[in-house]
């Protein structure tokens, strides 16, 4: 409701600027005023406010100078126009929802949620944990890697993400579900010295990425 009213107010502000500019021809100015009053009446209706009765030019009718029958008929016409607008908006929304559902039905999409609790592996140095989906029959990865940097202390390097290591592998379509086998693969890459037992300070290196381990589990 807030977004709908906000869009209406933006439209009214823009149309008001066009009217005050004085550059519109008389016929366009008249049509624009009708559009403004129709938008105001529609906004009042969805906000459950009073309906303002107007004449053909969009001017508010003066009850002191207008007969009761004329006011009643004008009120009927205004109510009918607003109801038609509401039905039109409702129909358009239903069509959008139907088209959206049909689109999703034609191209279904699935997702895999992963929640990393802990890495039980004695590494001795900092490491990178990479998780991805793999097709063993085609011998290729079918997703991007979810990367978690793990410290030598046995905790995530980004301590703020402790107990909040989650990822979602999205856009898994019908083609992926038709695969005979899909595996969840976890790779561990050690980041540090060339050799763990290298104690020679002259040969000491750092920041090197070395494969350390891999594990996999069949999903289907």
TrEMBL record:
GO terms for molecular function: guanyl-nucleotide exchange factor activity; small GTPase binding. Residues 2-205 form the Dedicator of cytokinesis N-terminal domain. Keywords: Coiled coil. GO terms for biological process: cell migration; myoblast fusion; small GTPase-mediated signal transduction. InterPro entries: DOCK (IPR026791), DOCK_N (IPR032376), DOCK_N_sub1 (IPR042455). It comes from the Eukaryota. GO terms for cellular component: cytoplasm; plasma membrane. Residues 72-99 form a coiled coil. PANTHER family: DEDICATOR OF CYTOKINESIS, DEDICATOR OF CYTOKINESIS PROTEIN 1. This is DOCK1 protein.
């Amino acid at each position: 409701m807030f977004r709908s009213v906000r869009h209406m107010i933006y439209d009214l502000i823009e149309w008001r600027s066009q009217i005050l500019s004085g550059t519109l021809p008389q016929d366009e100015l008249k049509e624009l005023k009708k559009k403004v009053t129709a938008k105001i009446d529609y906004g009042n209706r969805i906000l459950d406010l009073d309906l303002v009765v107007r004449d053909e030019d969009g001017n508010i009718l003066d009850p002191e100078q207008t007969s009761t029958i004329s006011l009643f008929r004008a009120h009927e016409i205004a109510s009918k126009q607003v109801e038609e607008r509401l039905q039109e908006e409702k129909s358009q929304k239903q069509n959008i929802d139907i088209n959206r559902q049909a689109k999703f039905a034609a191209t279904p999409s699935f997702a895999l949620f992963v929640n990393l609790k802990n890495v039980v592996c004695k590494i001795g140095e900092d490491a990178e944990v990479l998780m991805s989906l793999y097709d063993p029959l085609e011998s290729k990865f079918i997703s991007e890697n979810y990367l978690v940097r793990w410290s030598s202390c046995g905790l995530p390097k980004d301590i703020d993400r402790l107990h909040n290591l989650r990822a979602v592998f999205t856009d898994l379509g019908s083609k992926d579900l038709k695969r005979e086998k899909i595996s969840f693969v976890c790779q561990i890459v050690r980041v540090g010295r060339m050799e763990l037992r290298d104690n020679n300070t002259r040969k000491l290196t750092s920041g090197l990425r070395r494969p350390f381990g891999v594990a996999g589990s069949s999903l289907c």
